[in-house]
Amino acid sequence: MSGKFIALVKKEFIVLTKDWHGLMVLFLMPAAFILIMSMAMENAFGEHKRLSISYTLLNQSHTPLPAALLEKLNTIPGFDLVPLPNESTRESVSRGIIEGNYQLAIIIPNDFRQRLTTTMQGTESTLPQTAELLLAPTVKPYIQQIFTASLSAILIRQKIDWMLNEGTAPDAAPLVPQSTLDQLGQLNLGATHIYSEADVAPSTPNAVQQNVPAWLVFAMFFVAIPLSTVFLIEKQQGTLLRLRVMNIDAPTILLGKLVPYFCVNQIQMVVMIAIGILIVPLLGGQNLSLPHSMLGLMLISSACSIAAIGFALMVATMVRTTMQATTIGGVVNIIFGALGGIMVPKFIMPETMQTLTYLSPMSWGLEGFLDLFLRQSGWQAVLPEALYLSTFGLLCTTIAAYRFNKAY
């Protein structure tokens, strides 16, 4: 039986390579969508991310902070303050960062005034830590620099005010060494990135993180059209009947069709990721970063391919004409794409629509890829989506085998 199966696979590869037009569509269509949509949506995604930068303030000092300082800390330009409950602790603030309630947090220590007004010779790193910044791992370096610069300016102003009130500030600049003046601008702001066990990452993708996985999944499911068309041609020409006469069972025939298209899907994945990494940045878009887990990438890609090919086989055994195959395969794929967050990103949908996305197998595949490319999760994170996709694919293949057996 293994010899017959290998012969079937070879036959499918030969048939597939003869249809260059259909094969090129499977690559050019998603490539075009990735490039066009990544460029077109770049500003929209960037604006969404810009408006979502939030921070909070935890005062662990035994004495209330001055009203003027609180007012300035509460209105750092370009950032939105999230108030905290009175019983908040450093641990609860860290948990809030992990849960995505805010991206940054300012921790004011209990001896804040003493730390702030301390001046000593040396570098900033040798000074007592004035305050601590907690940051989500998703905060970009330039965002951290902007926030730190704004916070430093506010704290230095407060430092001067306190030292003037205490009579320790060098208010007569010509009478004191320049080194003493320089020390006024020195602060030690410790920065700590807060990670969860799953290495938390952003909840919303940028344009390239959304479009590369989205149109890759759509392209994988698009094999329903060429596969079902070839299946119907073989049916009309009597090829399938001759294979059955040769005592080749339905699962073997269907699996013979799975292998070539599985290979096509994996090549699609490599090409689309390469476009996101190499070509999109050349056109002014953001760069796509490879996921940490290559095993996770192989798992979700394989599961998505199984689902796509299983669905294609089911469509092929249900339709009677190539027109039906093209129409039904295309329309169902478009519905899957619209419902599954491919054409409209899930995070901008209303909550009701976000719930409905789980009805689309394309949504499962997209979420699996986002776990890797956006959240940089490990392979364990994609196991649920891979299980859903594989189950869907096997169910569709079982239906296809049943209908094929019934027909022959």
Structure explained in plain terms:
Helix content is 63%, strand content 6%. α4 links the parallel β1 and β2. It is mainly alpha-helical and 408 residues long. The protein has helices spanning 2-18, 20-40, 42-50, 67-73, 90-98, 112-117, 141-166, 178-184, 207-221, 224-237, 239-245, 250-282, 294-318, 322-339, 351-356, 361-373, 383-407; strands at 54-59, 80-81, 104-108, 131-135, 189-193. The chain has 2 domains: 2-46 and 204-407, no CATH class; 53-193, 3-Layer(aba) Sandwich (abc type-2 transporter like fold), CATH 3.40.1710. The longest helix has 33 residues, at 250-282. α2 (20-40) crosses α12. Strands 2-1-3-4-5 form a 5-stranded mixed sheet, with helices on both faces. The two termini are 19 Å apart. It is built from 17 helices and 5 strands. The model is unreliable at 47-51, 120-125, 169-185 and 195-200 (pLDDT under 50).
Topology, pairings included?
Blueprint: H1 2-18, H2 20-40, H3 42-50, E1 54-59, H4 67-73, E2 80-81, H5 90-98, E3 104-108, H6 112-117, E4 131-135, H7 141-166, H8 178-184, E5 189-193, H9 207-221, H10 224-237, H11 239-245, H12 250-282, H13 294-318, H14 322-339, H15 351-356, H16 361-373, H17 383-407
Parallel strand pairs: 1-2, 1-3, 4-5
Antiparallel strand pairs: 3-4
